[in-house]
Design goal:
The complex is a heterotrimer of chains A (about 280), B (about 300) and C (about 300). Chain A contains 11 helices and 10 strands. By secondary structure, chain A is of the alpha/beta class. In chain A, helix 4 packs parallel to helix 7. The radius of gyration of chain A is 19 Å and the shape is globular. In chain B, a hairpin with a 4-residue loop joins strand 1 and strand 2. The chains are: A alpha/beta (about 280), B mainly alpha (about 300), C mainly alpha (about 300).
Chain lengths: ~280, ~300, ~300
């Protein structure tokens, strides 16, 4: 039986026998105080396809948790469930719970708007709105009804610095955001998701369209960001997964195959399917 | 926050009402046509409608000459607007160089926007006398004149809808045909046009549908003689269409009279014709559009 | 020629050079034919426009544009008809623009593909196809008689507005759908409500397309005669309308009247009226084209 395996039905996210394998100190955080707990989550689309099957997963604070695996495995679906963006897709059936700080965010009573302010997301392709750089960043604040200019300015600077792009754009904040390069746009998107001071940042293959240098910059800023945020990342390659993962979950065909600390899953995976994928035999 | 939510609900319901307005209007149009038109069926015996004379003053309401008039004008319009429209669409979509496209498309759009009175006006002043002289007719106000101008009015509809359909044919189809050694000419007729068949058919139906419903032009140039068209020569004689009858006579009838209700009855016939044409066209459109819209992932 | 040898392979054309040359000739003749046929279609449009302008421009004068008709409309100007068409177009816009944009927003942003949405689409296609004279009957039955508005600008505008609605809805919906979905997703992911997303991102981006559709719809309304025959149009009025409950003269109806109903009408006045109507319509057409190409040039996506 693998660590954190999806077929486990015990209420505790981690079975006892796994503990000896998880000797990393930060593992205790997962056990005692995870930020997000996904509990028996199943999702199917209206065309009958099932995207996630009974997922059980605990995501720790202040770390990068990587969801990886071949395309169509349900990683993005899980990611988009955490801030309820799946509400927009033609999802027909959602079962199970996703607990964020002990609150079930799948409950119909939840204020999705508040949730999305707390859980930011960055997409695969950089999508800057057809506005200036500054307007892109303050967009979320405007939506929240925040009109104070000084708060805007502070938030813009803080988040641009956190996304490591302040120096590149500080003199051209009022230019259209589309005039930036792809790599810069993606960091603008990262900064834009930070403006609202979220607690969780979801990244869906954030570097898939970027050159190695821009990719390096984004990854570096993630390493800094994780000190203050819970980061969940769907990487665009196994190599990236191995580079940034503190924890890693391997998804295949809508199932969670294996979930453990990053170092282990990429050097000594328990499941043969994980091993095959990590070593590049399929996918 | 509370106020914001209330505003959101209010806006959403307003938008929803707007969304359903089209259904409401179609329903209302039908109801009011029925309301004003159905008394005619009670007051006028059915065989009266089936006679060959339309002479409301003597309570003769034979609809056949009017239906015949509409048919002959529409048929005439279809005969030359369909080939010309399709050929122009093919030229614009498949053959024309870019610069020619940029000129032709707006030009066809201008034709679509020309008011029908304007074309009727040109018809009276230019086409009618020219036709009378050229064919040595007693009058140039004939079904043929109407068909000629109506055809011109149907063309923009046919061109734009057919061109959209041709544009929608995947590029790979053409590339595959060309790669197999077909010329562009062969590709157009054997691949592109057949692939766009249903769209082109829709274009034809909508264009012809527009011709049936056209009013002002036909009223101005077809002479308005309520005679049932018989024989081949009828195309060069004056006719009167259903639309022109309503337009010409409604202004002079007393509201509530039998004549008034019969005019509404003709309106019902026109409504049902356009309903049929458009329902068929719509079913083609819907069959084509298989949108699998999953916004995310 | 059977379908089989239409797609001759390159080998075949090497073997049969004459066949290949014949195919090229067929294509050349065919393309020439297509070009000629297209010319047959479009030259009359140009000829009509040129004909009207060359015959009508001499009639245009300050007096013609800004004075009332005199001598049973056989001299003087067409001012009341111009004013009437202006008010009718404005009145049509007042009803059809908000309603049409609202409906398009519903279809593009709110509606899911179900039976009711299908019904709405079919209704729109049908509205677009209903003959204009039937709209006239409907306007007479509902607005003029049943709602007791009488022949008035209000009744005429409402009738024209319903007729214009499908044009505005379909062009606006197209413009809204052209806005990339990713913008909506980003806005929602930043905590935007659906309406905030529409108002702040989707509508501004779709605005040029919407304007184009509105102008083209109103162009059609401004030129229509049949729907206003029994709902608003007046043969001749000595005064300008003073409220929306008054009847009014209108350019297209005036052109109809002076070219068919008044004997001994001077030809210049007829052509002059046609020029004014044509200018009105062409201006709107050009406006739409300019907005469209301007927006296409500066679009960032």
């Amino acid at each position: 039986m693998n660590a954190f395996n999806s077929d486990l039905n015990e209420p505790s996210p981690v079975p006892m026998e796994v503990k000896p394998r998880a000797l990393n100190a930060s593992m205790e955080i997962v056990l005692t105080d995870p930020k997000i707990i996904v509990e028996h989550l199943s999702i199917s689309y209206s065309d009958g396809t099932e995207s996630l099957k009974d997922i059980y997963l605990a995501i720790p604070k202040n770390a990068i948790t990587v969801l990886f695996g071949p395309a169509g495995g349900g990683k993005s679906t899980l990611l988009r469930t955490i801030n309820r963006l799946n509400d927009l897709a033609d999802v027909v059936k959602v079962q199970g719970h996703v607990w964020l700080d002990g609150v079930d965010i799948l409950s119909p009573e939840i204020d999705v708007i508040k949730l999305r302010r707390k859980v930011g997301i960055v997409f695969a392709r950089p999508v800057v709105l057809p506005l200036t750089i500054r307007q892109n960043l303050t967009y979320g604040l405007e939506l929240a009804g925040q009109k104070d200019r000084t708060i805007h300015a502070d938030a813009v600077e803080r988040s641009l610095k956190a996304a490591a792009i302040w120096d590149e754009v500080k003199d051209r904040l009022d230019e259209p955001a589309v005039s930036l390069s792809g790599g810069q746009q993606q960091r603008i998107c990262l900064a834009r998701s930070l403006v609202l001071e979220p607690e969780v940042i979801l990244l869906d293959e954030p570097t898939s369209g970027l050159d190695p240098i821009s990719t390096g910059k984004v990854e570096a800023s993630l390493q800094t960001l994780k000190e203050n945020y819970t980061i969940v990342l769907v990487p665009h390659s196994v190599q990236q997964a191995a580079r940034v993962a503190d924890y890693a979950a391997f998804f295949l065909g809508g199932e969670l195959i294996e979930y453990t600390i990053g170092k282990q899953i990429f050097t000594n995976p328990l499941d043969s399917r994980t091993e095959d994928y990590v070593e590049g035999r399929f996918g | 926050m509370k106020a914001g939510k209330f505003k959101d609900i209010l806006i959403t319901s307003l938008i929803k009402v707007c969304g359903y307005s089209a259904i409401i209007f179609v329903g209302m149009i039908f109801v009011f046509l029925i309301k004003e038109g159905s008394p005619a069926l009670i007051r006028v015996p059915l065989e009266n409608f089936l006679q060959l004379r339309w002479y409301p003053i003597e309570d003769r309401f034979g609809l056949l000459p009017l239906i015949g008039g509409s048919l002959i004008v529409t048929l005439g319009a279809a005969i030359f607007s369909i080939p010309l429209g399709i050929v122009s669409a093919v030229y614009i979509a498949e053959v024309a160089p870019r610069w020619a496209r940029e000129i032709l498309k707006p030009l066809v759009e201008v034709l679509g926007g020309l008011p029908s009175v304007m074309l009727g006006f040109i018809g009276i002043l230019v086409i009618v006398p020219a036709l009378r002289q050229a064919l040595n007719l007693p009058t140039g106000l004939t079904a043929f004149t109407g068909a000629l101008i109506l055809g011109g009015m149907a063309i923009p509809t046919i061109v734009s809808v057919a061109e959209d359909a041709l544009d929608a044919v995947p590029k790979t189809y053409r590339e595959a045909a060309l790669a197999m050694g077909a010329t562009r000419w062969q590709t157009i007729w054997k691949v592109t046009l057949p692939a766009a068949k249903s769209g082109v058919l829709t274009a034809v139906m909508l264009g012809v549908g527009r011709a049936i419903g056209e009013t002002m032009t036909v009223m101005m140039v077809t002479g308005n003689a309520a005679v049932f068209p018989t024989g081949f020569g009828a195309i060069f004689k004056p006719v009167r269409t259903m639309t022109a009858t309503i337009a010409a006579e409604m202004g002079e009838v007393a509201s509530g009279s039998t004549h008034y209700h019969v005019l509404f009855l003709i309106g019902i016939i026109l409504f049902l014709i356009s309903l049929t044409v458009n329902l068929i066209a719509a079913s083609v459109v819907f069959r084509q559009r298989k949108r699998t819209e999953r916004i995310l992932s | 020629m059977t379908a089989g040898n239409n797609f001759s392979t390159t080998v075949e054309s090497r073997v049969l050079p004459s066949f290949s040359r014949r195919r090229k000739w067929i294509q050349r003749i065919g393309f020439t034919g297509l070009t000629l046929a297209t010319l047959v279609t479009v030259t009359p449009i140009l000829l009509i426009v040129i004909h009207i302008f060359s015959n009508g421009l001499p009639a245009i004068s300050w007096e013609f544009l800004f004075e009332f008709p005199r001598d049973g409309m056989r001299s003087g100007g067409i001012f009341p008809a111009i004013v009437g068409t202006f008010w009718l177009t404005l009145g049509t816009a007042a009803f059809s623009v908000p309603l049409g944009i609202g409906a398009a927003i519903y279809l593009s942003e709110y509606a899911t593909e179900n039976r009711w949405t299908r019904a709405i689409r079919i209704a729109i296609i049908n509205l677009a196809g209903i003959p204009s004279i039937v709209y006239g009957l409907f306007g007479l039955g509902l607005f003029v008689i049943f709602l007791r508005m009488g022949t008035s600008i209000l009744a005429g505008s409402l009738t024209l507005a319903i007729m214009t609605l499908p044009v505005i809805i379909s062009t606006t919906e197209e413009a809204l759908r052209a806005v990339p979905n990713s913008f909506r997703v980003v806005s929602i992911s930043l905590g935007g409500t659906r309406w905030q997303t529409i108002r702040r991102v989707v509508l501004p981006q779709a605005l040029p397309g919407i304007l184009t559709g509105v102008v083209l719809g109103l162009e059609r309304a401004a030129g229509e005669t049949a729907p206003i025959l029994f709902t608003v149009a007046a043969f001749y009025l000595a005064r300008l309308p003073s409220s929306i409950f008054d009847a009014t003269m209108a350019l297209p109806y005036h052109l109809f009247v002076i070219s068919t109903q008044v004997p001994g009408m001077p030809i210049q006045i007829q052509y002059g009226t046609a020029v004014v109507l044509l200018t009105f319509v062409l201006l709107m057409n050009i406006t739409a084209t300019v907005i469209r190409s301007w927006a296409r040039a500066r679009r960032q996506w």
